Protein backbone atom coordinates (compact mmCIF):
# COMPACT_ATOMS: atom_id res chain seq x y z
CA UNK A 1 0.00 0.00 0.00
CA UNK A 2 1.11 3.58 -0.60
CA UNK A 3 2.81 5.53 2.17
CA UNK A 4 2.00 9.01 1.01
CA UNK A 5 -0.53 10.31 -1.51
CA UNK A 6 -0.48 13.75 -3.12
CA UNK A 7 -3.91 15.04 -4.06
CA UNK A 8 -3.82 17.10 -7.24
CA UNK A 9 -7.10 18.88 -6.58
CA UNK A 10 -8.81 21.20 -4.14
CA UNK A 11 -11.77 21.68 -1.87
CA UNK A 12 -14.32 18.99 -1.03
CA UNK A 13 -12.95 16.25 -3.31
CA UNK A 14 -9.42 16.72 -1.95
CA UNK A 15 -10.90 16.38 1.53
CA UNK A 16 -12.81 13.28 0.42
CA UNK A 17 -9.55 11.67 -0.73
CA UNK A 18 -7.78 12.70 2.49
CA UNK A 19 -10.51 10.93 4.46
CA UNK A 20 -10.03 7.71 2.49
CA UNK A 21 -6.25 7.92 2.96
CA UNK A 22 -6.60 8.42 6.71
CA UNK A 23 -8.67 5.25 6.97
CA UNK A 24 -6.00 3.39 5.00
CA UNK A 25 -3.25 4.89 7.17
CA UNK A 26 -1.69 6.78 4.27
CA UNK A 27 -0.11 10.23 4.77
CA UNK A 28 -1.56 13.03 2.64
CA UNK A 29 -0.15 15.98 0.75
CA UNK A 30 -2.38 18.84 -0.36
CA UNK A 31 -1.59 21.49 -2.94
CA UNK A 32 -3.09 24.97 -3.07
CA UNK A 33 -2.87 28.22 -4.96
CA UNK A 34 -2.79 31.62 -3.26
CA UNK A 35 -6.54 32.28 -3.12
CA UNK A 36 -6.94 28.79 -1.59
CA UNK A 37 -4.58 29.24 1.36
CA UNK A 38 -7.54 29.01 3.78
CA UNK A 39 -9.31 26.21 1.90
CA UNK A 40 -10.51 23.23 3.90
CA UNK A 41 -8.28 20.65 2.20
CA UNK A 42 -5.17 22.61 3.18
CA UNK A 43 -6.18 22.37 6.83
CA UNK A 44 -7.02 18.67 6.67
CA UNK A 45 -3.94 17.28 4.91
CA UNK A 46 -0.77 16.26 6.74
CA UNK A 47 1.29 18.55 4.51
CA UNK A 48 0.30 21.31 2.12
CA UNK A 49 2.30 23.16 -0.53
CA UNK A 50 1.66 26.33 -2.44
CA UNK A 51 1.68 25.75 -6.20
CA UNK A 52 1.82 28.53 -8.70
CA UNK A 53 1.74 30.56 -10.71
CA UNK A 54 -1.60 32.32 -10.45
CA UNK A 55 -4.86 31.34 -8.83
CA UNK A 56 -5.61 28.42 -11.17
CA UNK A 57 -2.55 27.61 -13.31
CA UNK A 58 -0.69 25.97 -10.44
CA UNK A 59 -3.41 23.32 -10.20
CA UNK A 60 -2.99 22.60 -13.92
CA UNK A 61 0.79 22.36 -13.92
CA UNK A 62 1.30 18.64 -14.53
CA UNK A 63 5.11 18.67 -14.50
CA UNK A 64 5.26 20.90 -11.42
CA UNK A 65 2.83 18.74 -9.45
CA UNK A 66 4.58 15.47 -10.30
CA UNK A 67 7.93 17.00 -9.38
CA UNK A 68 6.51 18.17 -6.08
CA UNK A 69 5.18 14.68 -5.39
CA UNK A 70 8.63 13.27 -5.99
CA UNK A 71 10.30 15.91 -3.82
CA UNK A 72 8.01 15.30 -0.83
CA UNK A 73 8.22 11.51 -1.15
CA UNK A 74 4.67 10.81 -2.29
CA UNK A 75 4.37 7.45 -4.02
CA UNK A 76 0.99 8.10 -5.64
CA UNK A 77 -1.15 10.97 -6.97
CA UNK A 78 -4.96 11.16 -6.81
CA UNK A 79 -6.38 13.62 -9.33
CA UNK A 80 -9.86 14.14 -7.82
CA UNK A 81 -12.29 15.32 -10.53
CA UNK A 82 -12.02 18.26 -12.92
CA UNK A 83 -8.63 19.98 -13.39
CA UNK A 84 -6.20 17.16 -14.21
CA UNK A 85 -8.42 14.13 -13.71
CA UNK A 86 -9.03 13.72 -17.43
CA UNK A 87 -5.62 14.89 -18.58
CA UNK A 88 -3.72 11.89 -20.06
CA UNK A 89 -0.42 13.70 -19.42
CA UNK A 90 -0.68 13.24 -15.68
CA UNK A 91 -0.44 9.42 -15.69
CA UNK A 92 2.36 9.67 -18.28
CA UNK A 93 4.40 12.08 -16.17
CA UNK A 94 3.73 9.95 -13.10
CA UNK A 95 5.01 6.88 -14.88
CA UNK A 96 8.24 8.66 -15.86
CA UNK A 97 8.91 9.54 -12.24
CA UNK A 98 7.92 6.18 -10.82
CA UNK A 99 4.80 7.53 -9.11
CA UNK A 100 1.50 5.64 -9.28
CA UNK A 101 -1.44 7.49 -10.79
CA UNK A 102 -4.67 6.64 -8.98
CA UNK A 103 -6.90 6.27 -12.00
CA UNK A 104 -7.06 4.55 -15.37
CA UNK A 105 -4.28 4.39 -17.97
CA UNK A 106 -3.26 7.38 -20.01
CA UNK A 107 -4.44 5.56 -23.18
CA UNK A 108 -7.95 4.99 -21.90
CA UNK A 109 -8.23 8.58 -20.61
CA UNK A 110 -7.29 9.84 -24.09
CA UNK A 111 -9.68 7.44 -25.78
CA UNK A 112 -12.72 8.08 -23.61
CA UNK A 113 -11.95 11.79 -23.18
CA UNK A 114 -12.74 12.12 -26.86
CA UNK A 115 -16.51 11.74 -27.05
CA UNK A 116 -16.42 10.62 -30.68
CA UNK A 117 -13.85 7.90 -29.98
CA UNK A 118 -15.82 6.89 -26.90
CA UNK A 119 -18.96 6.45 -28.99
CA UNK A 120 -16.99 4.40 -31.52
CA UNK A 121 -15.74 2.17 -28.71
CA UNK A 122 -19.29 1.70 -27.44
CA UNK A 123 -20.52 0.75 -30.91
CA UNK A 124 -17.67 -1.76 -31.22
CA UNK A 125 -18.73 -3.25 -27.89
CA UNK A 126 -22.25 -3.67 -29.32
CA UNK A 127 -23.85 -0.81 -27.38
CA UNK A 128 -26.31 1.59 -28.96
CA UNK A 129 -25.31 5.27 -29.01
CA UNK A 130 -27.38 8.35 -29.81
CA UNK A 131 -27.81 8.60 -33.60
CA UNK A 132 -25.89 11.43 -35.23
CA UNK A 133 -22.77 12.29 -37.19
CA UNK A 134 -20.32 9.44 -37.79
CA UNK A 135 -17.46 11.46 -36.39
CA UNK A 136 -16.45 15.09 -36.19
CA UNK A 137 -18.28 17.59 -38.38
CA UNK A 138 -16.05 20.02 -40.22
CA UNK A 139 -18.16 21.95 -42.73
CA UNK A 140 -21.52 23.72 -42.50
CA UNK A 141 -22.80 21.77 -45.52
CA UNK A 142 -21.99 18.50 -43.78
CA UNK A 143 -23.77 19.66 -40.63
CA UNK A 144 -26.87 20.72 -42.54
CA UNK A 145 -27.01 17.40 -44.37
CA UNK A 146 -26.68 15.32 -41.20
CA UNK A 147 -29.43 17.30 -39.47
CA UNK A 148 -31.71 16.94 -42.50
CA UNK A 149 -31.26 13.19 -42.12
CA UNK A 150 -31.71 12.80 -38.37
CA UNK A 151 -34.27 15.61 -38.04
CA UNK A 152 -34.41 18.49 -35.56
CA UNK A 153 -33.97 19.08 -32.69
CA UNK A 154 -30.32 18.09 -32.56
CA UNK A 155 -27.51 18.60 -30.10
CA UNK A 156 -24.15 20.03 -31.10
CA UNK A 157 -21.41 18.70 -28.83
CA UNK A 158 -17.77 19.53 -28.32
CA UNK A 159 -15.68 16.37 -28.71
CA UNK A 160 -13.59 17.29 -25.66
CA UNK A 161 -16.47 18.73 -23.63
CA UNK A 162 -17.33 18.19 -20.00
CA UNK A 163 -19.11 19.80 -17.05
CA UNK A 164 -22.07 20.79 -19.23
CA UNK A 165 -19.99 23.09 -21.43
CA UNK A 166 -19.72 22.92 -25.19
CA UNK A 167 -23.30 21.62 -25.63
CA UNK A 168 -25.95 23.35 -27.74
CA UNK A 169 -29.52 22.30 -28.48
CA UNK A 170 -30.57 23.30 -31.99
CA UNK A 171 -34.26 23.39 -32.83
CA UNK A 172 -34.16 24.36 -36.50
CA UNK A 173 -32.02 24.74 -39.58
CA UNK A 174 -31.87 28.53 -39.06
CA UNK A 175 -30.06 28.18 -35.74
CA UNK A 176 -27.62 25.48 -36.74
CA UNK A 177 -24.68 27.36 -38.19
CA UNK A 178 -24.60 29.95 -35.43
CA UNK A 179 -24.91 27.28 -32.71
CA UNK A 180 -21.98 25.38 -34.16
CA UNK A 181 -19.80 28.44 -34.05
CA UNK A 182 -20.85 29.20 -30.43
CA UNK A 183 -20.17 25.58 -29.40
CA UNK A 184 -16.76 25.70 -31.08
CA UNK A 185 -15.71 28.90 -29.38
CA UNK A 186 -16.97 27.72 -25.99
CA UNK A 187 -15.04 24.48 -26.45
CA UNK A 188 -11.90 26.31 -27.52
CA UNK A 189 -12.01 28.47 -24.39
CA UNK A 190 -12.75 25.61 -22.03
CA UNK A 191 -10.91 22.65 -23.56
CA UNK A 192 -8.62 24.11 -26.24
CA UNK A 193 -10.26 21.93 -28.88
CA UNK A 194 -12.81 23.18 -31.43
CA UNK A 195 -13.86 19.78 -32.74
CA UNK A 196 -17.63 19.17 -32.65
CA UNK A 197 -20.10 16.44 -33.57
CA UNK A 198 -23.88 16.24 -33.83
CA UNK A 199 -26.43 14.01 -32.11
CA UNK A 200 -30.16 13.63 -32.29
CA UNK A 201 -31.67 15.49 -29.34
CA UNK A 202 -33.52 12.89 -27.28
CA UNK A 203 -36.74 14.36 -25.90
CA UNK A 204 -37.29 14.20 -22.15
CA UNK A 205 -34.71 11.53 -21.33
CA UNK A 206 -33.39 10.40 -18.00
CA UNK A 207 -29.66 10.69 -17.41
CA UNK A 208 -28.70 7.30 -16.00
CA UNK A 209 -25.08 6.47 -15.26
CA UNK A 210 -23.42 3.31 -14.02
CA UNK A 211 -20.56 3.27 -11.55
CA UNK A 212 -17.81 0.90 -12.62
CA UNK A 213 -14.94 -0.59 -10.62
CA UNK A 214 -12.27 -2.53 -12.48
CA UNK A 215 -9.06 -3.98 -11.07
CA UNK A 216 -5.84 -4.78 -12.92
CA UNK A 217 -6.71 -8.46 -13.21
CA UNK A 218 -9.73 -8.23 -15.49
CA UNK A 219 -12.37 -8.11 -12.76
CA UNK A 220 -14.96 -5.48 -13.67
CA UNK A 221 -18.13 -4.87 -11.69
CA UNK A 222 -20.78 -2.16 -11.52
CA UNK A 223 -22.25 -0.64 -8.39
CA UNK A 224 -25.63 0.12 -9.89
CA UNK A 225 -26.87 3.36 -11.33
CA UNK A 226 -27.46 6.98 -10.48
CA UNK A 227 -30.25 9.09 -11.90
CA UNK A 228 -28.82 12.55 -12.58
CA UNK A 229 -31.78 13.99 -14.47
CA UNK A 230 -32.23 17.03 -12.25
CA UNK A 231 -30.02 19.40 -14.21
CA UNK A 232 -29.86 23.04 -15.10
CA UNK A 233 -28.04 23.96 -18.32
CA UNK A 234 -27.06 20.29 -18.69
CA UNK A 235 -25.30 20.37 -15.34
CA UNK A 236 -26.38 18.11 -12.52
CA UNK A 237 -27.52 19.63 -9.22
CA UNK A 238 -29.38 16.71 -7.60
CA UNK A 239 -28.50 13.03 -8.02
CA UNK A 240 -30.30 9.90 -6.93
CA UNK A 241 -29.51 6.22 -6.42
CA UNK A 242 -31.04 3.92 -7.42
CA UNK A 243 -33.16 5.27 -10.29
CA UNK A 244 -36.92 5.13 -9.85
CA UNK A 245 -37.47 4.19 -13.51
CA UNK A 246 -35.28 1.10 -13.79
CA UNK A 247 -36.61 -2.34 -13.08
CA UNK A 248 -34.27 -5.24 -12.29
CA UNK A 249 -34.23 -6.40 -15.90
CA UNK A 250 -33.23 -3.01 -17.34
CA UNK A 251 -30.72 -2.48 -14.53
CA UNK A 252 -29.06 -5.75 -15.39
CA UNK A 253 -29.05 -5.02 -19.11
CA UNK A 254 -27.58 -1.54 -18.70
CA UNK A 255 -25.09 -2.74 -16.08
CA UNK A 256 -23.89 -5.43 -18.47
CA UNK A 257 -23.57 -2.83 -21.25
CA UNK A 258 -21.50 -0.57 -18.97
CA UNK A 259 -19.22 -3.47 -18.09
CA UNK A 260 -18.90 -4.50 -21.75
CA UNK A 261 -17.76 -1.01 -22.77
CA UNK A 262 -15.28 -0.83 -19.89
CA UNK A 263 -13.85 -4.26 -20.63
CA UNK A 264 -13.57 -3.56 -24.34
CA UNK A 265 -11.17 -0.67 -23.65
CA UNK A 266 -9.32 -2.48 -20.83
CA UNK A 267 -10.58 0.02 -18.33
CA UNK A 268 -9.12 -0.02 -14.83
CA UNK A 269 -10.01 1.84 -11.63
CA UNK A 270 -13.30 3.70 -11.01
CA UNK A 271 -15.24 5.09 -13.94
CA UNK A 272 -18.73 6.07 -14.96
CA UNK A 273 -20.63 5.08 -18.07
CA UNK A 274 -23.32 7.63 -18.91
CA UNK A 275 -26.52 6.80 -20.79
CA UNK A 276 -29.72 8.54 -21.76
CA UNK A 277 -32.91 6.53 -21.29
CA UNK A 278 -35.88 7.61 -23.40
CA UNK A 279 -39.63 7.31 -22.81
CA UNK A 280 -39.66 3.76 -24.20
CA UNK A 281 -36.87 2.72 -21.83
CA UNK A 282 -34.45 2.44 -24.74
CA UNK A 283 -30.98 3.44 -23.63
CA UNK A 284 -28.15 5.14 -25.49
CA UNK A 285 -24.51 5.50 -24.44
CA UNK A 286 -23.40 9.16 -24.36
CA UNK A 287 -19.98 9.22 -22.71
CA UNK A 288 -17.66 7.74 -20.12
CA UNK A 289 -16.07 9.75 -17.32
CA UNK A 290 -12.68 8.28 -16.51
CA UNK A 291 -12.52 9.56 -12.94
CA UNK A 292 -14.34 9.75 -9.65
CA UNK A 293 -17.51 11.79 -10.03
CA UNK A 294 -19.02 14.42 -7.79
CA UNK A 295 -22.09 12.27 -7.12
CA UNK A 296 -20.26 9.04 -6.19
CA UNK A 297 -21.56 9.59 -2.65
CA UNK A 298 -25.09 8.37 -3.47
CA UNK A 299 -23.68 5.07 -4.71
CA UNK A 300 -21.59 4.76 -1.56
CA UNK A 301 -24.72 5.38 0.49
CA UNK A 302 -26.77 2.60 -1.11
CA UNK A 303 -23.97 0.03 -1.52
CA UNK A 304 -21.86 0.73 1.57
CA UNK A 305 -18.76 0.58 -0.64
CA UNK A 306 -16.11 3.30 -0.23
CA UNK A 307 -15.35 4.03 -3.88
CA UNK A 308 -12.33 6.26 -3.23
CA UNK A 309 -10.72 3.59 -1.05
CA UNK A 310 -11.35 1.10 -3.85
CA UNK A 311 -9.64 3.49 -6.30
CA UNK A 312 -6.58 3.57 -4.07
CA UNK A 313 -6.54 -0.20 -3.53
CA UNK A 314 -6.92 -0.91 -7.24
CA UNK A 315 -4.09 1.50 -8.09
CA UNK A 316 -1.93 -0.22 -5.47
CA UNK A 317 -2.47 -3.49 -7.34
CA UNK A 318 -4.93 -5.16 -5.02
CA UNK A 319 -7.57 -7.36 -6.64
CA UNK A 320 -11.25 -6.50 -6.25
CA UNK A 321 -12.62 -8.70 -3.53
CA UNK A 322 -16.24 -7.78 -4.21
CA UNK A 323 -17.99 -9.83 -6.86
CA UNK A 324 -20.97 -8.58 -8.82
CA UNK A 325 -23.33 -10.73 -6.79
CA UNK A 326 -21.98 -9.20 -3.55
CA UNK A 327 -23.19 -5.75 -4.58
CA UNK A 328 -26.48 -5.11 -2.83
CA UNK A 329 -28.48 -1.93 -3.25
CA UNK A 330 -30.17 -0.96 -0.03
CA UNK A 331 -32.73 1.86 0.18
CA UNK A 332 -32.31 5.21 -1.57
CA UNK A 333 -29.94 8.14 -1.51
CA UNK A 334 -30.14 11.71 -2.78
CA UNK A 335 -27.33 14.21 -3.15
CA UNK A 336 -27.83 17.98 -3.38
CA UNK A 337 -24.92 20.03 -4.66
CA UNK A 338 -24.96 23.07 -2.39
CA UNK A 339 -23.63 25.80 -4.63
CA UNK A 340 -22.94 29.47 -3.97
CA UNK A 341 -25.32 30.51 -6.71
CA UNK A 342 -28.45 32.58 -6.98
CA UNK A 343 -31.06 30.32 -8.60
CA UNK A 344 -33.30 33.35 -9.19
CA UNK A 345 -30.58 34.98 -11.27
CA UNK A 346 -30.11 32.04 -13.59
CA UNK A 347 -27.86 30.29 -11.06
CA UNK A 348 -25.28 33.04 -11.24
CA UNK A 349 -22.31 32.14 -9.02
CA UNK A 350 -21.69 34.55 -6.18
CA UNK A 351 -18.65 35.11 -4.04
CA UNK A 352 -18.38 36.48 -0.55
CA UNK A 353 -17.75 35.49 3.01
CA UNK A 354 -19.69 32.76 4.78
CA UNK A 355 -21.03 34.55 7.86
CA UNK A 356 -22.64 31.55 9.57
CA UNK A 357 -22.31 27.82 8.96
CA UNK A 358 -24.03 24.91 10.70
CA UNK A 359 -24.34 21.73 8.69
CA UNK A 360 -27.25 19.35 9.22
CA UNK A 361 -26.78 16.02 10.95
CA UNK A 362 -28.68 13.08 12.33
CA UNK A 363 -29.55 9.70 10.89
CA UNK A 364 -28.71 9.11 7.24
CA UNK A 365 -27.00 12.45 6.67
CA UNK A 366 -23.57 12.92 5.12
CA UNK A 367 -21.76 16.18 4.44
CA UNK A 368 -18.78 16.57 2.13
CA UNK A 369 -18.10 20.19 2.85
CA UNK A 370 -15.76 22.93 1.74
CA UNK A 371 -17.20 25.88 3.68
CA UNK A 372 -17.02 27.03 7.30
CA UNK A 373 -17.78 30.24 9.18
CA UNK A 374 -15.67 33.16 7.89
CA UNK A 375 -14.57 31.19 4.80
CA UNK A 376 -14.11 33.60 1.92
CA UNK A 377 -15.21 31.97 -1.34
CA UNK A 378 -12.57 32.55 -3.99
CA UNK A 379 -14.11 33.49 -7.32
CA UNK A 380 -11.77 31.40 -9.46
CA UNK A 381 -13.24 27.95 -9.04
CA UNK A 382 -16.58 26.20 -9.37
CA UNK A 383 -19.25 27.33 -6.96
CA UNK A 384 -19.86 24.14 -5.00
CA UNK A 385 -19.63 24.70 -1.23
CA UNK A 386 -20.80 21.34 0.03
CA UNK A 387 -22.48 18.12 -0.98
CA UNK A 388 -25.37 17.01 1.16
CA UNK A 389 -26.09 13.30 0.73
CA UNK A 390 -28.93 11.63 2.61
CA UNK A 391 -30.09 8.05 2.60
CA UNK A 392 -33.22 6.27 3.75
CA UNK A 393 -34.97 2.92 3.57
CA UNK A 394 -37.63 4.12 1.13
CA UNK A 395 -37.82 6.87 -1.49
CA UNK A 396 -40.43 8.75 0.56
CA UNK A 397 -38.28 8.63 3.67
CA UNK A 398 -35.22 9.78 1.72
CA UNK A 399 -37.03 12.78 0.24
CA UNK A 400 -38.38 13.71 3.69
CA UNK A 401 -34.90 13.37 5.12
CA UNK A 402 -33.45 15.65 2.44
CA UNK A 403 -36.20 18.19 3.11
CA UNK A 404 -35.43 18.06 6.82
CA UNK A 405 -31.65 18.29 6.25
CA UNK A 406 -31.84 21.19 3.80
CA UNK A 407 -34.01 23.14 6.21
CA UNK A 408 -31.49 22.49 9.00
CA UNK A 409 -28.64 23.81 6.86
CA UNK A 410 -27.39 27.24 7.93
CA UNK A 411 -25.12 28.79 5.33
CA UNK A 412 -25.26 32.57 5.41
CA UNK A 413 -23.45 35.43 3.74
CA UNK A 414 -23.97 34.25 0.16
CA UNK A 415 -26.94 33.09 -1.86
CA UNK A 416 -27.06 29.31 -2.18
CA UNK A 417 -29.09 26.69 -3.98
CA UNK A 418 -30.52 25.41 -0.66
CA UNK A 419 -33.96 27.13 -0.74
CA UNK A 420 -34.42 26.11 -4.37
CA UNK A 421 -33.53 22.48 -3.67
CA UNK A 422 -35.90 22.58 -0.71
CA UNK A 423 -38.64 23.65 -3.11
CA UNK A 424 -37.84 20.68 -5.35
CA UNK A 425 -38.09 18.33 -2.35
CA UNK A 426 -41.62 19.69 -1.77
CA UNK A 427 -42.66 19.37 -5.40
CA UNK A 428 -45.38 16.79 -5.96
CA UNK A 429 -44.04 15.57 -9.28
CA UNK A 430 -40.55 15.13 -7.89
CA UNK A 431 -41.92 13.25 -4.90
CA UNK A 432 -43.85 10.97 -7.24
CA UNK A 433 -40.72 10.34 -9.28
CA UNK A 434 -42.27 12.08 -12.25
CA UNK A 435 -39.24 13.95 -13.63
CA UNK A 436 -36.67 13.83 -16.44
CA UNK A 437 -33.89 16.14 -17.67
CA UNK A 438 -36.44 18.82 -18.60
CA UNK A 439 -37.74 19.11 -15.01
CA UNK A 440 -35.98 22.34 -14.01
CA UNK A 441 -36.62 24.13 -17.30
CA UNK A 442 -40.29 23.13 -17.26
CA UNK A 443 -40.95 24.14 -13.66
CA UNK A 444 -40.06 27.83 -13.45
CA UNK A 445 -42.50 28.23 -10.54
CA UNK A 446 -39.90 26.50 -8.36
CA UNK A 447 -37.99 29.80 -8.50
CA UNK A 448 -40.71 31.50 -6.52
CA UNK A 449 -39.49 30.14 -3.21
CA UNK A 450 -39.20 32.23 -0.09
CA UNK A 451 -36.00 32.25 1.93
CA UNK A 452 -36.26 29.47 4.49
CA UNK A 453 -35.91 29.71 8.24
CA UNK A 454 -32.58 27.98 8.89
CA UNK A 455 -31.55 26.42 12.19
CA UNK A 456 -29.72 29.58 13.27
CA UNK A 457 -32.97 31.51 12.88
CA UNK A 458 -34.66 29.00 15.11
CA UNK A 459 -31.90 29.14 17.74
CA UNK A 460 -31.89 32.96 17.72
CA UNK A 461 -35.69 33.07 17.98
CA UNK A 462 -35.55 30.70 20.94
CA UNK A 463 -32.86 32.77 22.65
CA UNK A 464 -34.92 35.92 22.10
CA UNK A 465 -38.01 34.25 23.56
CA UNK A 466 -36.07 33.11 26.63
CA UNK A 467 -34.55 36.55 27.09
CA UNK A 468 -37.99 38.17 26.84
CA UNK A 469 -39.42 35.68 29.31
CA UNK A 470 -36.65 36.39 31.78
CA UNK A 471 -37.23 40.11 31.32
CA UNK A 472 -33.70 40.70 30.03
P1 LIG B 1 -19.60 14.96 -12.58
O1 LIG B 1 -19.26 14.68 -14.02
O2 LIG B 1 -18.61 14.45 -11.60
O3 LIG B 1 -20.99 14.63 -12.29
P2 LIG B 1 -19.29 17.73 -13.23
O4 LIG B 1 -19.71 17.51 -14.62
O5 LIG B 1 -19.89 18.87 -12.47
O6 LIG B 1 -19.53 16.48 -12.32
O7 LIG B 1 -17.71 17.84 -13.21
C1 LIG B 1 -16.97 17.98 -12.03
C2 LIG B 1 -15.93 19.06 -12.23
O8 LIG B 1 -15.06 18.70 -13.28
C3 LIG B 1 -16.50 20.41 -12.61
O9 LIG B 1 -15.74 21.40 -11.96
C4 LIG B 1 -16.35 20.44 -14.11
O10 LIG B 1 -16.27 21.76 -14.59
C5 LIG B 1 -15.05 19.68 -14.30
N1 LIG B 1 -14.97 18.95 -15.58
C6 LIG B 1 -15.80 17.98 -15.99
N2 LIG B 1 -15.41 17.51 -17.20
C7 LIG B 1 -14.32 18.19 -17.55
C8 LIG B 1 -13.45 18.18 -18.70
N3 LIG B 1 -13.65 17.35 -19.73
N4 LIG B 1 -12.42 19.02 -18.70
C9 LIG B 1 -12.21 19.86 -17.67
N5 LIG B 1 -12.99 19.93 -16.58
C10 LIG B 1 -14.03 19.12 -16.51
P1 LIG C 1 -20.86 16.57 -20.27
O1 LIG C 1 -19.60 16.03 -20.82
O2 LIG C 1 -20.90 18.02 -20.19
O3 LIG C 1 -21.28 15.85 -19.03
P2 LIG C 1 -22.85 14.94 -21.67
O4 LIG C 1 -22.64 14.47 -23.06
O5 LIG C 1 -22.67 13.96 -20.59
O6 LIG C 1 -21.93 16.21 -21.41
O7 LIG C 1 -24.30 15.57 -21.56
C1 LIG C 1 -24.70 16.34 -20.47
C2 LIG C 1 -26.21 16.38 -20.40
O8 LIG C 1 -26.77 16.94 -21.58
C3 LIG C 1 -26.87 15.02 -20.29
O9 LIG C 1 -26.93 14.57 -18.96
C4 LIG C 1 -28.24 15.29 -20.86
O10 LIG C 1 -29.10 15.90 -19.91
C5 LIG C 1 -27.95 16.28 -21.96
N1 LIG C 1 -27.73 15.58 -23.24
C6 LIG C 1 -26.57 15.14 -23.75
N2 LIG C 1 -26.75 14.56 -24.95
C7 LIG C 1 -28.06 14.63 -25.22
C8 LIG C 1 -28.88 14.21 -26.30
N3 LIG C 1 -28.37 13.63 -27.39
N4 LIG C 1 -30.21 14.43 -26.21
C9 LIG C 1 -30.75 15.04 -25.14
N5 LIG C 1 -30.04 15.48 -24.10
C10 LIG C 1 -28.71 15.27 -24.12
MG1 LIG D 1 -21.59 13.84 -18.84
Helical content class: 25-40%
CATH H-level superfamily title of the largest domain: ATP-grasp fold, B domain
Task: State Rg.
Answer: 22 Å
What general form does the structure show? globular
Which short descriptors sum up this protein?
472 residues, alpha+beta, Rossmann fold, Dna Ligase, domain 1, D-amino Acid Aminotransferase, Chain A, domain 1, eight-stranded antiparallel β-sheet, five-stranded parallel β-sheet, 17 helices, 20 strands, 36% helix, globular, binds adenosine-5'-diphosphate, binds magnesium ion
Describe what you observe in this structure.
With 472 residues, the protein is of the alpha+beta class. It has 3 domains: 4-102, Rossmann fold, CATH 3.40.50; 131-200, Dna Ligase, domain 1, CATH 3.30.1490.20; 206-448, 2-Layer Sandwich (D-amino Acid Aminotransferase, Chain A, domain 1), CATH 3.30.470.20. It is built from 17 helices and 20 strands. The chain has helices at 11-23, 40-44, 57-60, 62-71, 89-96, 106-113, 115-124, 140-150, 173-191, 248-264, 296-303, 307-315, 395-408, 418-426, 428-432, 439-442, 455-469; strands spanning 4-7, 27-32, 47-50, 76-78, 100-101, 154-162, 165-170, 196-200, 206-214, 220-232, 235-241, 269-277, 283-289, 332-339, 341-342, 348-349, 356-358, 365-369, 384-392, 410-412. An 8-stranded antiparallel beta sheet has the order 13-12-9-10-11-14-19-18. Strand 6 and strand 7 form a beta hairpin. It is globular, with a radius of gyration of 22 Å. The N and C termini lie far apart (61 Å). Bound molecules: adenosine-5'-diphosphate (ADP) (2 copies) and magnesium ion (MG). One adenosine-5'-diphosphate is lined by residues 130, 155, 161-164, 167, 199, 201-202, 205, 207, 231, 234, 274, 276, 286-287, 437.
Amino acid sequence: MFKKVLIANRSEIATRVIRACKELDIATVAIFSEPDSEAIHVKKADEAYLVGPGPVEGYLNVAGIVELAQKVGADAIHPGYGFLAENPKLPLFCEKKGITFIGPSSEVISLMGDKIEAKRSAIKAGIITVPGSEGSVTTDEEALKICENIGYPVMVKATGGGGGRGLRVVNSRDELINSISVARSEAKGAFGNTEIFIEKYIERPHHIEFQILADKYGNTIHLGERDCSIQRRHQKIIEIAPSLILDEKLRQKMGEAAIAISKSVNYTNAGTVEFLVDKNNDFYFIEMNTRIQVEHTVTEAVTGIDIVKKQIEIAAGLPLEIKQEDVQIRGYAIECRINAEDPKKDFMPNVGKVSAYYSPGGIGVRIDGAAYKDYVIPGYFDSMLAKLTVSGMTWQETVARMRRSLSEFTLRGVKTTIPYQLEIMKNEKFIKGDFDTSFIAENPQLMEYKEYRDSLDIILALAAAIAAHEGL
